[in-house]
Amino acid sequence: MNPRAVDPRTPDRPPIDADEHREQAYELFLKLYNNHRDFFDELLDADQQQVGEHLRSSRYVQGMVRGQQAYLISNLINGKSQSLLQYQMIWMMGRDPQAALPIPDQRLSRRHAVIQYIPRRGFYLVDLGSTNGSFINGRLVRGRHRLRDGDRLRLGGFSFDFFICYSSQTVNSAPADLIAQLQAMPIPEETDSSLRYKDALSVPLAEKLAAEETMLASGEGAGENNAPVDGEDDLGPPLPDPEGFAF
Length: 247
Fold this sequence. Notes:
- By secondary structure, the protein is of the alpha+beta class.
- Among the domains are: 18-54; 58-165, Tumour Suppressor Smad4 (Sandwich), CATH 2.60.200.20.
- 26% of the residues lie in helices and 23% in strands.
- It is built from 6 helices and 12 strands.
- The strands form 2 sheets. A 7-stranded mixed sheet has the order 3-2-1-12-11-8-9, with no helix packed on it.
- Strand 2 (69-74) and strand 3 form a beta hairpin.
- Helix 1 crosses helix 2 (37-50).
- The protein is elongated and about 95 Å long.
């Protein structure tokens, strides 16, 4: 049979150009993704874990509680650890540049979730009806869910660890010979203003923390524990929304 001959049983098909072929492949992928979103998200998450795991495992948010005031310390913004103060104690996360924790990941909703601190109750993750969901230790959560120290959070395909510090205590004084040894060492010049404590904290809170440090040093309130009361349900009953913020 002549290899150039056309098989009469094969219908003639117009050639498909490269652009049309790419468009058809993209539409097919969208259909597959929409029908198997969870599967593809797991594949993407697994791929992220294999490439640069040491960088992702260092992402963290830590909740700090001092009396009735709470704040976050995190390196999710530009990869640098910094204190995040919010007087309502509500930190929004998502693609919105105005979020307390802006995360430029397309798998996140613009307003994806918030971390909220409720005095004497604890820190909570609140999903805001996101498209790709919020997960705690691999479990999909809806609404408000209380966070525990060491939880692994995933928003869409973006993962980080969450830690909580509820208590503080005064430790033993440094030995005199150690102090003398340190005083004899030269102190390098620092030009990075981000290392200054008050640059990361507002003045009122910095003064409050300094006052609490003085109280702890005097022995008052040593070992104070602001952890929530045991026995509370993880989800808890519906709570009133803080003034000026609606879920």
